[in-house]
Structure prediction request, 647 residues.
Amino acid sequence: MLSILYLPHSFLLPLLNWCGDVGDACPPQNQDGSVAVTINGAVALPGVERETWTRQMDFIMSCVGFAVGLGNVWRFPYLCYKNGGGVFLIPYLLFVFIGGIPVFFLEIALGQFMKKGGVSAWNIAPLFKGLGLASMVIVFFCNTYYIMILVWGLYFLIHSFTNPLPWSTCGHYWNTPNCTQDWRAYHNQSSVQLLSSTPSNMSSVPLFINGSSMEAEGMRSPVIEFWERKVLRLSGGLDEPGLISYEIVLCLIATWVLVYFCMWKGVKSTGKVVYFTALFPYLVLVVLLAHGVTLPGALDGIVYYLKPDWSKLGEAQVWIDAGTQIFFSYAIGLGALTALGSYNRFHNNCYQDAFVLALINSGTSFFAGFVVFSVLGFMAAEQGVDISKVAESGPGLAFIAYPKAVTLMPFAPLWAALFFFMLLLLGLDSQFVGVEGLITGIMDMLPPKSVLGSLRREVVAAICCVICFLIDLSMVTEGGMYVFQLFDYYSASGITLLWQAFWECVVIAWVYGADRFMDDVARMIGYQPLPYMKWCWSYVTPFVCVAVFVFHVVNYKPLTYNTVYTYPMWGEMIGWMLALSSMLCIPLTVLYKLLRCKGSLREVSILLLLLLLLNVCVFHSARCIFVNSKERVSVDFPLCLNIRAAC
Prediction:
């Protein structure tokens, strides 16, 4: 196995020059000294100390704020009831342990070990640095369109301080003559598909919107008219952008200013703000549940939420929904978790943190189901319909079902304001931590001695926020919802996130080496994690990603809005360009690195074969170690090859 070491030096160097960019595979830097720890402890180099969290709880709260978001409240409860109630927890918890926790832990540990953000952390395997670029593209798209949910939430919050609520009655200038408040007369409703979003990816799921039979009769609910005619001012399609809504623009400006000042000073400011934005929604959830269980029909709603249907376990869709929800709700593949982990102290127990955060994330999803279905049970009882007729997910729950439900409650403005304030906070910390991940990645990439490298963090953050704001202007027009749905359906869809998670596991397990990464983690936390982690990275999680990825591709359906409007072909092409802009970063970067090799095509092919078969990792350093299962040989090269023997 060590015979490769005796290849002529002139052959080795051309093969290894594919990773010759300055800064590739830089060793990580200590937090408690001026030295950097290198792989296998081969060499100690001077390092620059990186900013760290003031308290370790700042990191926990930031991860909670980022990963625990709107998807936990408005998507998981719907999926649980739809897929067999309590039975859904079986595949869900299985995917938590074989998909969610392993990749969640991988991203945090990678950032903590390399002391770099989402892009530069992948210097650990320079050939696959495109993984970092892909995550930057995805999180940029997420930051761009996810904020629109906060904007709509802020708009509803402002209008909650009126009595009666503007969406509870007809007679406003935005209402049509067909607007009616008599919902009981039109309770025979059918399903309509509406956009559904989660905090990290925002994919579409089927929803059930009250009032579809009313519309068949020519009648429309005031809450639907407020949403479509007042808030969205919905046009006829993507090719009809229409005018900008200046009320929504003001909300957009206010939201971006709030996001900017939450994270402009880095983790020192983020770590303080997130205590409120992450914890207060839990208080509101408890208050809403305490009120919800006192309402008529609440118990029926909770029973409907948990009632087990064991036959559902035999349906493939149930397992796919469980796996998809895990990758979405755990905010995997966005690079933000890696950025947050990079601010940890080197010896922080990130392994323990991963399990604690997983418990909080999934526990919040389960608890939110009681809040949602207690209210939906009340709503069904008040309207005299089955709960399945009012069960919704995504914006359908946030901006139609729940606003309608609060109009049936005493002190409706109070409960509306509480709900939308909670919605705003749930999305706000996901938003500014996502922007933090983007800024961290950019700052790590800027050459420190260049003009760009001298830019202050506050300036870079402002530039990013302004660019996102300018793109968002396309979503505050009359056709803005169609643009929003394009971003939602394609740019951070299940396909892109699963592709990202698959390659993260493959690169760490088969290129860098799962055992080597486990040793690196042990160096940080002081003990070896359970071996099930490396088994998941090497086999189980990639298989799960491929299976769910193939399912999404095979079952792909063209994008529609409300099952009525079908996007034109050019609109779908724009959507696929958004998706491929991140997915192609990985293979194109590999191709670029290989084409820059100074060796012949034959030599490059041999290197690629080594990468696939011998688990090769290339490093810049003054000293490297060739590792074999029986012996270690230390040699000096400017560039050197680290081969982990298969025997």
